[in-house]
Amino acid sequence: MSKTKKLMAMLLCCLLVFSVVFPFGATETEAASKQISDISKKNSKYKAAKWTIDNDYLQLYKGNKFQSGTLVMEWQMLQFLAKMDKNYHFSTNDKDMLYEYYGDLNIPLYGVNNKSKRNANISRGHFARLYAAVNGLDLSEIQAVRYLYMNEITTGTTGKQTYEDYKPTRNINRGDMAVFMYRINQQGKLAIEGLASTPAGKDNNKITLPVNFVESKNGTVTIPTTPGENTDDKTTRPDVYKAVKKINVENEELTANGVDSTLITIDLRDSYGNDISYDESLAFKVTSKAGAKVSETNTSTSGQSTTVYTDGPQLSVYVTAPALTKSVVDTIRFEMINPSEKYYTYKNQVIEASVRYVPKAELRISYEVFDPEQTEWNGGTVDPGVRPLPALPQGVVGTTTVPFTQNGVITISNYDPDLKVMTGSKWESYTTADGKLTQGQVTSKEIQYGNADLKLEGQIISVWLFEQILDYMIEGPKEESSWGGLGSAKVMYTVNNEGRATYDLQGVMSEEDTEAFDSMLHAVIIYLTDKFLPIADQVTLAHEESVEVIKAMYDRLGQIDKNLLRKDYADIIGKLEGAVAKIKVLLAGKELQQRPEGMDRYTKVIVNLVAPGGVIITDYKGTVEVTFNGKTRVVSFDTNTKDYNNGTGSRGSAVVYFDDILYGKAQVKARLIDLDPRYDKVVQSLKNTTVSEQIFANPRYENNLCSVESEVMFVVDHSGSMKARDAKNYTANKVKQTIKQIGANPSHVYRFNNRPNHEATDKADIVSSIDSLLTYKNENRSTNIVKALETAIGNFTTNQYTSKAIVLVTDGYSNSNGLEQVLRDAKLKGIAIHTVSVGSYTTVNEKLLKDISSETNGTYQNITSIENLHGSLQAIITTILCKTPVMNNSCLVGDTIFNNTDVRIETSKVTILADVNTGCDNVKGVRVVFISPSGDVKYDLPARGSSRYMHRPNLYEFPEFDLYVEVEFQAIDATGNIIGTKIHNM
After folding, report:
1. pTM given for the model
2. Is residue 35 scored above 70 in pLDDT?
3. Alpha-carbon distance 849 to 856, whole Å?
4. What pLDDT, on the 0 to 100 scale, is given for residue 528?
5. How far apart are CA 137 and CA 196, in angstroms?
6. Bridge-partner residues for 958, per DSSP?
7. How far is CA 254 from CA 261, 334, 725, in A?
8. Contact at 8 Å (CB) between 475 and 489?
9. What is the pLDDT of residue 339?
């Protein structure tokens, strides 16, 4: 349909008032009389038929007859669906409009391309395919019938629940249609979004057919509705359900550089086809055939995981490609650990996902942002990478190498602080070169400790502290003392779950050091600070890590414990606080010294040339062009550049400073200019290529408009699914920044998964300065929002003069059991709960979070990506302090306005789609501009309901389609002004 015709049709729909509506060819009866005369109230179809009449979905024939047996035409079925579809806003009596609209959504309809088939009767099998498409599944008829059974839309004609029992070839009648539609309505409001492309059964693999589902294979099957109902399931139906609903690999091809990673997400059911509760967590063993690193979060310091846990039905892991010089297809294998009866089909079964690793030359971009007004929360991707694993200790006796056994004590007699190795011996049993089994002390002078986990009484300590204690135990105190040391120190040797050697110092603290404390943690804090930490005047940056680890131990204490230590050991705690303050001053001075002259703020961009296999080229003699915020610089690769990670002298970086900051997301581009002929073959694939990298600068909060005495509880989701959405834990720093900005006294912080865990309660400035606040832990990954809120509500003070609020940050995957009581308690105590959901509005449990906020006079915010958290928290800050609800003003940012943008090229059409954030109610239209050197092409996308905008123009409308590289999506307000844009790369 042309745009002019469509516009005329819409105008007519708005202007005409239809006085007569034909009930599929029948005359409407008087509205006052809607009793059905030809269906008994005892008839199984009566309730459904009455529902269709009462809601004006269908009309009665003369004599109040429903005429259940009257066959239904395709357009009539489509009309019924349109009446139920909350996304459809046009006339349901206009056949052309119906087919134009739903044809664009790829609903399987014969009448889209052949108008004569619009009046043809529709079969029951055809209806099954329609229903699947309504729910976004492209299924063939057999799988679609199975899908009807799974969703309890049909029970079959005799209860056997097979394909034939559904009678798919029989034409559907009004009675069938009423029952089907009534059951669909019972499952919630209908909002049809359709398929991404022309239906062809592409989702058949998502539906597993039970054994003998098709009776022509000489068998029938009965599907149990509850676990264990059929005791013969295991023997007669070993594949009763395919428990894996979906496997999604975010990026199936990675660069084999030891850095590039992808997220794998697996959605599961139990062995009876039932959904898994979000407060349940299942353990899986995970392995990589190619030796890739598997971890729960996507940071360079995240360790290797061999066991991962689900968040209810969802299993999420990050896979980081190994550094390779040839292409490899990897198999990531997941196997449930000790499956219970409920998961019997998982026993000895392996779930597999494939990832390909390809060695490529790279221009690798990293960056740092320096903002003097918020130095605690500057952004950047520059980090030291994964700490290398130290060699596990072993000694040599004659010609026999003897590995040190784990879980035993090594006696250390010396250490080299430059090489970071110890000399130590351990009693071992071993077989000599001539085959004799013997025992004895085995000595090694090469026990590496620089990258090991170092501990004192189970508490992680720094390398410097470890060396000070070794020196103290071996040589004695540096000052004059009657005690000259023991000549040795003892460490318990173990290996942690990532294969890292761990050395825990033994027998260091005497009874005198520990007897005054109920907690060993208290004793360690006081011992280390008193005996080894220098006074503030003598603290240097060499002590930075040591001060941080002791402070982290102190920060883990509850407020009561902190108060006790401050009371009983005021001088020692004061010494620790003085050292912390001195380190802050030294770091500020270091930043000032390193800052380029004349730049009070900057974005620093670092470019490295990386050879296939992940090795940085350190002697490249060439230049690179770097573009940021409209400015371009050409810089050389410096073969003498100090390592931007730790200053140890790594070479091969091109570094450029830009004297500005773009808050939020921005792009940096780099391309090689002058080439080094020695590396011509290596960089061949990078010639004439521009590489882009997204960077992010943490936005600043506005000055507070109001002030109020408040008590605020931050409740932060640390479930598995949330970690997948915030793999780098951006939320932790943003919450600290928010606590400082609100200034609530007290401020509380809880993290939660299946249960809440208290992080801190104190004055805002103290809580916001806790370095370890909200760090990710290796713990259960399931989710229980209600339990977390229940605990938070119960831990507010009884102070009646403070405004009380909870800030809940979550991806919304949770059950709602017990919610009503929690909301009653919150309202009784006057606690407003502000909720922030992370993820597309189509995937989060928006209803749950909206109910929580609306019932407690809080606000609800939705953000698509975690980087947009700033806008939501800024709105909540203003709401709490001014006691007036404020919505997220980040809808002025294009990346926040659009939840999703997509351009898909099909055989003869181009599908253009935009999903707008439901919270951005100032968006009234979407325009798309295809940018090309040969001329731009523009379209205004029609609204499809539920904040979706979509259009499917013909492919021939785009001359030289391959020239289009970028597409600009523009959000338009009511006056036609552009309020935000987003660039979509083709």
Report:
1. 0.61
2. yes
3. 11
4. 96
5. 9
6. none
7. 7, 20, 20
8. no
9. 87
CB contact at 8 A, 965 and 985: yes
- Are the C-beta atoms of 792 and 750 separated by less than 8 Å? yes
Predicted confidence (pLDDT) at residue 444 exceeds the cutoff of 90:
yes
Render 914-981 in DSSP notation, one character per residue: EEE-TT-TT--EEEEEEE-TT--EEEEEPEEETTEEEE--BGGGSTTGGG--EEEEEEE-TTS-EEEE
For 368-392, the pLDDT digits (tens) are 888 888 877 766 776 555 577 899 9
- Distances in Å between the Cα of 752 and the Cα atoms of 136, 487, 732, 819 are 33, 47, 13, 16
Residue 577 pLDDT more than 80? yes
Lookup: tokens for 400: 């026999």
Which candidate, 209, 207, 283, places its Cα nearest to that of 245? 207
CATH class, range 244-358: mainly beta
Are 332 and 353 a contacting pair, CB within 8 Å? Answer: yes
Place of tokens 């943490």: 698
Residues 104/945, Cβ–Cβ less than 8 Å: no
- Architecture per CATH, 710-887: 3-Layer(aba) Sandwich (3.40)
Using CA of residue 146, residue 150, residue 153, residue 154, what is the dihedral sign? Answer: positive
Could you state, in order of their start, the residue ranges of all structural domains in the chain? 3-217, 244-358, 363-371+601-670, 394-591, 710-887, 894-985
CA distances (Å), 230 to each of 159, 218, 219, 221, 895, in order? 15, 21, 17, 11, 51
| Tokens 């400035």, residue located | 765
Q: Which two tokens stand for residue 850?
A: 């909206």
pLDDT tens string 141-150: 999 998 888 8
Of 123-137, 863-877, 907-921, where does mean pLDDT reach its minimum? Answer: 907-921
What is the three-class DSSP state of 576?
Answer: helix
Helices (H), 818-917: 819-828, 846-855, 869-882, 894-897
Average pLDDT score over residue span 913-919: 79
Q: Please check whether the two domains, 710-887 and 894-985, share a CATH topology.
A: no
Helix 141-150 crosses helix 124-134 at what angle (to 10 degrees)?
A: 70
Distance CA 917, CA 914 (A): 10
Neighbouring C-beta atoms of residue 151, cutoff 10 Å: 14
Are residues 767 and 750 in contact, defined by beta-carbon separation less than 8 angstroms?
no
Mean pLDDT of 27-49: 72
Among the listed residues 398, 429, 195, the one whose alpha carbon sits nearest the alpha carbon of residue 909: 195
| Tokens found for residue 806 | 């909870």
Q: What is the mean pLDDT of the chain?
A: 83
Per-residue confidence at 758, pLDDT binned at 50, 70, 90? very high
Question: 3-class DSSP state for residue 541?
Answer: helix
Q: Find all residues with CB under 8 Å of 791, minimum gap 6, and list them.
A: 750, 756
Q: CATH classification of 894-985, choosing from 3.90.1150.10, 2.60.40.10, 3.30.470.20, 3.30.70.120? A: 2.60.40.10
Buried b (16+ CB within 10 A) or exposed e, 852-872: bbebbbbbbbbbbbbbbbbbb
Q: Which of 417-426, 750-759, 968-977 is modeled with the greatest confidence? A: 417-426
